Amino acid sequence: MAEHIVQFANLQASARVPTGTLLTEAAQQAGVRLNQPCGGQGRCGRCAVQIVQGQVRSRSTLRLGAEDIARGFVLACQAVVEGDVVVDIPPQEKIERRLTTDRTVAAVSPPAHYDPAIHQTLQRLSLQLKPPNMDDQTDDWSRLKWALEKRLGRGQVEAPLAVLQKIGPALRQGDWTVTVVVEDPSWDFCDDCPANLLDIQPGLAPADTPLWGIAVDIGTTTVSLWLVDLLSGVVKAQVAEYNRQISRGEDVISRIIYANKNHGAEELRQLVLETINELVERACRRTKINAADIYKAAITGNSTMMHLLLGLPTNSIRLAPFVTTVNNLPLLRAGEVGIHIHPQATVDCLPGVASYVGADITAGVLSSGMADTDKITLFLDVGTNGETVLGTRDWLVTCACSAGPAFEGGGVLDGMRATRGAIEEVWVHSQTYEPSWRVIGNVRPKGICGSGLISLLAELFITGVIDKGGHFNSHLQSPRVRKGEHGWEYVVAWGHETAHGRDITLSHVDVDNLIRAKGAIYAGFTVLSESVGVPLETVEQVLIGGSFGKYINVEKAIHLGLLPDMPWEHFQFLGNTSVKGAYLALLDRTQRARVQDIASSMTYLELSADNRFYEAFTSALFLPHTNLNKFPSVARALA
Q1: Does domain 121-202 have CATH number 3.10.20.880?
Q2: Among candidates 301, 298, 305, which has minimal Cα distance to 339?
Q3: Count of C-beta atoms within a 10 Å radius of residue 123
């Protein structure tokens, strides 16, 4: 097979590839990272590159305008190499955090009555051993093991080879006085688990030496990490960063598809490990500690994120009958996972329930207090999966629906993440139809993030710019409503107002994607409530988890039909409930056992097998709904 040279001229990189290779594959071989938020399916348009010399065969030009094509732009994930080419790659989207979240977050108070001697599985112990002599030639490990078992009051202690190799030198260097770190994972469901010797150091450690652990939430969009002093329960640092996997897929389905291409699974695993390890380094630098002093990690995330982290196959998650490789993972070691803390540190991946209801939801139910209340509660995680839990302390039912990445800026032409330059709030004048907006960072806008899209769509509906079916009113006497390349659209910002000089618009295609996303979420919790005979009107509180939830305007979300029409005081925005749940499980063995109970007791409803979901989804494909009686406050606003 013929081979061709692909040069990425502006990056001084190149690759030699055979005929039929995709440009994205050539870029990967050349060490060039291209953003592929749709997982290489040709849907997002964000991997567009310019062919400067030579030609490629394009499978699809979706999201490229006629002018772009004329200038030589192609979608790298759809462009097949058939000869030597020179490619120019535009600047890739730079991810910036909306806030320096790891410096402005609220302090976390340890649970009341927290006692590490009772609740913590990790212990640091100082031991004084009798040295051997000609009358006592007991081997070093047996001598240490006997002292440990006596101190712990149990007869099962194990040590990995790496620790066994350190025992002899540590005992002799410390003159038979050593400090050890032991993990005793005897939760309620693991009474027979042996204690594990994680580390041994010569001499006595100072009495006030902290014992460190981390709580990690691997979100589809953002990875959050809390560094915790396990003796006091105090969170010493909170850091967060965008999940580097975003460049290979904005939602879990896109990432599963990418994982099953070539070496995609390993690439995704390395990307999330890079993200976690960068956060570990940042937290340690801030607190001036050594990462090797971290002996424990509790990790949450949806089922796909957990599988990608551990290199487990993911394809069965998206294919009927939608089965994971594992929902309850055994305890692992940091060294084998690839997390750069103490190599023998315990990595505890919290349990999930099903393919699309993972540990992030069980941890969220724990930290929200939902599993401890008699109130009928609806717990929502508004994101690409739209996970929902309904119940009380006595019963829990859960489901998930694929809402897609629209509310996170994906699938919307001028959509973007909540970064500097994103329009986050919009108001539309009811007579002139002129918009005003607020931009993250108070700079010229580049696009619209999720909260801005919710706000904009609600405003356009209430002011009559679009009707309940999402169609634009083409008869309005306003230059803002016009016919664009993708149908009718509304101009949010003119080119002279924006950072890039192009108009920022919301098209009919964008509106349709947003309505479908909100319809899926609403249909999910509607069918869930119907399946257990609990009308939505009887729900006493709605708890909204996830960092995105903090920025949702309740009134406008109700106007869209994204949230049920209830009094505002029924809604509570809890922020990242997943990392909070990981933190509780990290600290307290009883809370860790509680997470296991929650996962075991949840009843999972598979919506794809329920015809009622399709009917509810179809009914929700209107603003706010086909049945306006379900939204009396919206009816009043329209009147």
Answers
A1: yes
A2: 298
A3: 20
